Amino acid sequence: MIKAILFDISGVLYIDRQPIAGAVELIKTLRQSSIPMRFVTNTSRSTSQSVFAELTRMGFDIKPEEVFTAPVAIKSLCQAKGYRPFCLIHPDLMPEFSDLDQSRPNAVIVTDAAELFNYQQLNQAFSLLMDGAVLLGIGRNRYFKSAGQLQLDAGPFIQALEYAADVKAQIIGKPDASFFQAAVSSLNVRPDEVLMIGDDVASDVVGAINAGLQACLVRTGKFLPQDEKEAKSANALIADSVVEAVNQAFDLEY
Ligand SMILES: [Mg+2]
Fold this sequence. Notes:
CATH class of the largest domain: Alpha Beta
Number of strands: 14
Helix content: 25-40%
GO molecular function: inorganic diphosphate phosphatase activity; metal ion binding; phosphatase activity
Organism: Methylophaga sulfidovorans
CATH topology of the largest domain: Rossmann fold
Distance between the termini: 9 Å
Function: Phosphatase that hydrolyzes imidodiphosphate, 3-phosphohistidine and 6-phospholysine. Has broad substrate specificity and can also hydrolyze inorganic diphosphate, but with lower efficiency.
Family: Belongs to the HAD-like hydrolase superfamily.
Order of helices and strands: EEEHEHEHEHEHEEEHEHEHEHEH
Structural class: alpha/beta
Largest sheet: 6 strands, parallel
CATH superfamily of the largest domain: HAD superfamily/HAD-like
Bound molecules: magnesium ion
């Protein structure tokens, strides 16, 4: 029985700053029925505060504490372990880490840095890794979709640094099981009672199932037809949109 829902955000609730048809109303309905929700994202071009502000601006009835981003999880890890990070991240995300000591780095954080993925920055990260810094990555997403185009995400750059320095990154965002478990732990339900809805078959769907959750792939956002095979073999649901995903999940049960 499904008792709580994790929503991926981009490509599931909205695309290019426009809500998916019916998504705003769906969240409102779930809110009224007191289904616990978390909005989980590897997004690395904005802080959790701006993710919340953007969703609110689009009309989504959510609470700040329901937004669970990978950068926030990375920051918590840095604080727990005493990491002083070199941040190879998007300029818009810098405020999330501004209160961490970033002198004499003993860690390298890599998120989707966009234009800052230049030779000088990547080479500095490489040098720190060769000197023993730990590599913290946001996820292995290969690409995301924006303005109708697939665009390189952080995964390929993390893998390049791993290859160059012969190290293994610690991945903090989806599809890492600990990320899903951290999101679920605040819900007071068992992982198998949670449905994860996402448009990324590897990070959202297979990742969630590997962490013991149920999952549904939606045919919006970055979805490609060839993703269905992987979703089916992982025993995931498949739906045309987030609205249909929730309907399917609850129809199966009641
Ligand atoms: Mg997505």
